[in-house]
Amino acid sequence: MKEVEGYISKEHLKHWRNSVPEEYIDLYLPKFSISVDASLRDTLKELGITKAFEDNADFSGISDETEIKVSKVSHKASLSVTEMGTEAAAGSISEMIRLSLPPSVRIDRPFLVFVMENSARSILFMGKINNPTLIQENQKLDVGNAVALCAGFNPLESF
């Protein structure tokens, strides 16, 4: 896992996102929940958003107050996957049946998780699960249109 983590770059994520086909699978995945609470101040400054943090910031378009500036920008995200699916998932769904059995993917070791928005092909969330405990076979996780980004895919052999 350390080798894969050290190897991942923006280019690798873009390649995986664009080249790994979407596939319907039977997914056996441990229940997990991860969250992050981070300050975005430095990130926004690196992106060139600096004036909002300065004493002479101009927010006249949104406030009558003249002496205000942004002091803190925080971002909190969480992802929870249970036997019922993902928490706070939204979207439309249609159901089709396959004429053949889908491939089965069993995750029972540390893994990386990526949540991707399909229309823009943007990675919204990524995390690492260090110590998964596999759920029982009769507790198959139904995640609907699961995309197996790593099923049969060794990122170290692809480049």
Automatic annotation (TrEMBL):
<feature type="domain" description="Serpin">
    <location>
        <begin position="1"/>
        <end position="132"/>
    </location>
</feature>
<comment type="similarity">
    <text>Belongs to the serpin family.</text>
</comment>
<dbReference type="InterPro" id="IPR023796">
    <property type="entry name" value="Serpin_dom"/>
</dbReference>
<keyword id="KW-0325">Glycoprotein</keyword>
<dbReference type="GO" id="GO:0004867">
    <property type="term" value="F:serine-type endopeptidase inhibitor activity"/>
</dbReference>
<comment type="function">
    <text>Major thyroid hormone transport protein in serum.</text>
</comment>
<dbReference type="InterPro" id="IPR023795">
    <property type="entry name" value="Serpin_CS"/>
</dbReference>
<dbReference type="GO" id="GO:0005615">
    <property type="term" value="C:extracellular space"/>
</dbReference>
<dbReference type="InterPro" id="IPR042178">
    <property type="entry name" value="Serpin_sf_1"/>
</dbReference>
<protein>
    <recommendedName>
        <fullName>Thyroxine-binding globulin</fullName>
    </recommendedName>
</protein>
<dbReference type="Pfam" id="PF00079">
    <property type="entry name" value="Serpin"/>
</dbReference>
<keyword id="KW-0732">Signal</keyword>
<dbReference type="InterPro" id="IPR042185">
    <property type="entry name" value="Serpin_sf_2"/>
</dbReference>
<dbReference type="InterPro" id="IPR036186">
    <property type="entry name" value="Serpin_sf"/>
</dbReference>
<dbReference type="InterPro" id="IPR000215">
    <property type="entry name" value="Serpin_fam"/>
</dbReference>
<keyword id="KW-0964">Secreted</keyword>
